[in-house]
Design a protein that fits this description.
Length: about 400
């Protein structure tokens, strides 16, 4: 069993600072990496050490360079790397590179990522585990006539989904065959630009649905807990805007059912570290259908932390060190994980509503932030746009975690 002394955070902005905070509270040193464009970024100055990466590269390419991240980790003597979310967080080649260089990757195993990292293969795992999935095609080929035949077999309306990545990119609703070809090609182009892979498939569209996801933590000893569910139904352009924990519309029977389904699929692959299993709930029938697994920590992990009292990022670190799930969470059994109160997270983005909601820019001249017990603020800005995450917790008492992450 290891005890990390120095953790490199292969990310930037809000999530990098969140991880640094967790590591600092555990008495561990932190290392930041930054592209030239982020030389004044707050995450650079919050770390114990900071190193520039990607000289001569673009800002995104710098953070996606496995060689650069590994170079810094070796030079500074980091014994673990936390990927945060986005960027390299779901790249199994990065996990392999860490292992090859004797560095612990704080996240699931590479083979788990390969099984669950893309939506198409994750569906096959769900079927093997006996978890309900929405009717869908296989990964689409290039023959448009064959695609039309597959679409007709599943039945309209359909949703085009990119196999890799998230954030709504590559997704398109398709209401009839008349718009099938145009939207498939359009979605492929967007997915290729966003993820470097245009692969996708068609899924039956549930017209009245709620989006519910289950937080999972698993250790390397076969132990696993679920941390209940989050509701992410309020979305725009297939991107989450409001997250709540717990989902207020679920009965106790439904809550038990969806948490068991999330647990079931992760247990099937002996999942380690933090992960989220996403489902659609058909509002007409009340049935749950598996969507995908996110093999990483998510933006909305904070709402689960507020209602369970479990620090998910610290748990990730402890699990990667070889601790049991009970040691990592401070909960002896699954039954000891309890829900207390309600938490709500909102994402505020700078977009122009008078110009088709395109990303807006400019200088912020005045800003007043929320303060008080049970409020957390997180900021993302710079090369990927600007976003403010505000989280509120509602209980009879005070929040176990108060103030801002930044």
């Amino acid at each position: 069993m290891t005890d990390f002394k120095k953790i490199l955070i292969a990310n930037r902005g809000e999530i990098a600072i969140r991880i640094m905070r967790a590591a600092n509270e555990m008495g561990k040193k932190t290392v930041a990496v930054f592209a030239e464009e982020d030389k004044l970024g707050l995450h650079r100055f919050k770390a114990d050490e900071a190193y520039r990466i990607g000289e001569g590269m673009g800002p995104v390419a710098a953070y996606l360079s496995i060689d650069e991240i590994i170079r810094v980790a070796r030079e500074c003597g980091a014994d673990a790397i936390h990927p945060g979310y986005g960027l390299l967080s779901e790249n199994p080649d990065f996990v392999d590179a860490c292992a090859k260089n004797g560095i612990t990757f704080i996240g699931p195993k590479a083979e788990t990522m390969r099984a669950l990292g893309d939506k198409a293969s994750a569906r096959r795992v769900a079927v093997e585990a006996g978890v309900p999935v929405i009717p869908a095609t296989e990964v689409l080929g290039d023959d448009m006539a064959a695609i039309k035949a597959e679409a007709a077999e599943v039945g309209y309306p359909l949703m085009l989904k990119a196999s890799w990545g998230g954030g709504g990119r590559g997704m398109r609703p398709i209401m009839s065959e008349d718009e099938l070809e145009e939207k498939v090609l359009e979605g492929r182009r967007e997915a290729e630009a966003a993820f470097g892979n245009g692969e996708g498939y068609l899924e039956k569209m549930i017209m009245r649905a709620r989006h519910v996801e289950v937080q999972i933590l698993g250790d390397s000893h076969g132990g696993m807990y679920h941390l209940f569910e989050r509701d992410c139904s309020v979305q725009r352009r297939n991107q989450k805007v409001v997250e709540r924990a717990p989902a207020p519309y679920l009965s106790e029977e439904q809550r038990t059912e969806i948490c068991e389904l999330g647990y079931k699929i992760c247990k099937h692959v002996n999942y380690e570290c933090a992960g989220t299993v996403e489902f659609l709930m058909d509002m007409e029938t009340g049935k749950f259908y598996f969507i995908e697994v996110n093999p990483r920590v998510q933006v909305e992990h904070t709402v689960t932390e507020e209602v369970t009292g479990i620090d998910i990022v610290q748990s990730q670190i402890l699990i990667a060190e070889g601790k049991t799930i009970a040691e990592a969470t401070g909960k002896a059994t699954q039954a000891d994980v309890q829900l207390t109160g309600h938490a709500l997270q909102t994402r505020i983005t700078t977009e122009d509503p008078q110009n088709n909601f395109i990303p807006d820019y400019g200088r912020i001249t005045a800003f007043r932030e929320a303060t008080g017990f049970g409020i957390r603020l997180g900021w993302r800005h710079g090369i990927f746009g600007w976003c403010d995450h505000a989280l509120l917790r509602f209980t009879a008492g005070q929040s176990h975690r108060q103030g801002a992450d930044t």
